[in-house]
Amino acid sequence: MEKIGIIDADLLDNGTRHPNLALMKISGFHKSQGHKVSLITDVNNTRYFNKVYISKVFTYTNFPAIILKKKNVVYGGSGFYPEGDGPLLDNCIEHHMPDYELYEPYIKSKIAKGVKESYFKDYRLFSIGFLTRGCFRQCEFCINKKYKRVMHHSHVQEFLDNKRQYIYLWDDNVLGYKNWKEVFDELKATKKYFQFRQGLDIRVMTTEKAKALASSRYYGDFIFAFDDLREAKSITKGLNIWKKYARKTTKLYLLCAYKTTDISDIGELFERISILMRYQCLPYVMRYENYKNSPYRKIYTAIARWCNQPHIFKKMSFREFCLAHMAYSKQNTIPSIVKAFYQLEEEQPILTKKYADLKYMDFGKI
User: What is the DSSP string of 224-264?
Assistant: First the structure.
């Protein structure tokens, strides 16, 4: 019997709400071979194992690189291979039932130290997997470029744990799959609520897809993506169809600060937000790390904080959100967010006049 060690690098660097699916599949496979598998939370213990698997999803996760040179270590994941050119899992592992118990010792130790049990709902309540893989969009900023078309990957029974209440899926572009209806029929047959965690592609929306998605047992908000203002025509075309059938909250991811961080990007971000207001959709601003080097860094941060708190976004304009911080300032001081707003208004009066006073609640439903 071999001793197998598993290291979730993201988990060790401030933690993550999402379990690592690849590591759970690796663990499940090795346990099926009679091996003893342990989740390692101390990177100095790797010498006690015949083989150690290390994975990280995020490039910014800090991890001691020297460990990767050890002979018993195998590593992978988008955090190590941001261009998407990392090694694939062996087929027997890729299509193995995930080990949903892998993280239990870690979870129990954290709960014992006071972490709320609800923090670990993704670990405990969801079956996790892919039904399709790939995307024909091949967006420059996206890591999922390995497959240039959407294709079937697995059936839901491959990773379904009937004891778990829900299902979440990491499919890259399920609505772009030619047999998307079969996927939804499979999910319907489980009688469980499900959710796609990647932003769905509103640009390929049809009446048939809208009816199927809106009437499904969908968990949480519907989330699409609107990453480029140049796609506004196809985005609004899809939203015009979708909003006829949607009966609950619709959000769209808005990527910003990717190609540029100048005022044109700020203006395009505001324009996308205004479009979503007209459709009574909520924006979720995702800042590419380049925003940190922008002269408008504080404005990017303010926009994200405004948009990403729906209870605030629905009631306040951007101006109201920024200036509300005066109420919490110390005597004779002006908060940095207020200073940033006033500077934007002084430098860009036309842009500020066009967008700063728009309010979600002032737009009727389309």
Answer: EE---GGGHHHHHHHHHHHTTT--S-EEEEEEESSS--SHH
Helix (H) and strand (E) counts for the chain?
14, 12
Give φ, ψ of 160 to 5 degrees.
-80, 125
Cβ atoms of 59 and 37 closer than 8 Å: no
Amino acid at 152: H
Ramachandran region of residue 355, left (φ > 0), alpha (ψ -120 to 50) or beta?
alpha
Cα(149)–Cα(244) distance, integer angstroms: 29
* 88 CB-contact burial (10 Å; exposed 0-12 / middle 13-18 / buried 19+): exposed
For residue 163, the tally of other CB atoms under 10 A from its CB is 8
* Cβ neighbours around 304 below 10 Å, total: 19
Average pLDDT over residues 233-243: 98
* DSSP-derived secondary structure for 124-158: HTEEEE-SEE--SS--TT-S--S-SS-EE---GGG
d(CA 94, CA 159): 11
- Phi, then psi, of 166 in degrees rounded to 5: -130, 175
pLDDT in tens, 151-181: 999 999 999 999 999 999 999 999 999 999 9
* Tokens read off for 292: 């940190």
Cα first-last separation, the chain: 62
| Distance between CA atoms of residues 170 and 104, nearest Å | 22
User: How far is 23 from 71, CA to CA, in rounded Å?
Assistant: 19
Entry field: residues in the chain: 366
Q: Is the pLDDT of residue 331 over 80?
A: no
Strand duo 151-152 + 132-133: pairing: antiparallel
Structure tokens at 216: 């499904």
- How many other CB atoms sit within 10 Å of the CB of residue 52? 24
DSSP run (H or E) holding 214 = helix 207-214
Secondary structure letter of residue 161 according to DSSP:
-
Q: Give the best-scoring range by mean pLDDT among 1-5, 149-153, 265-269.
A: 265-269
Residue 97: alpha-carbon gap to chain centroid: 23
The three-state secondary structure class of 54 is strand
Tokens of 161: 């744990």
For Cα atoms 316, 320, 324, give the angle at the middle one, nearest 5 degrees.
110
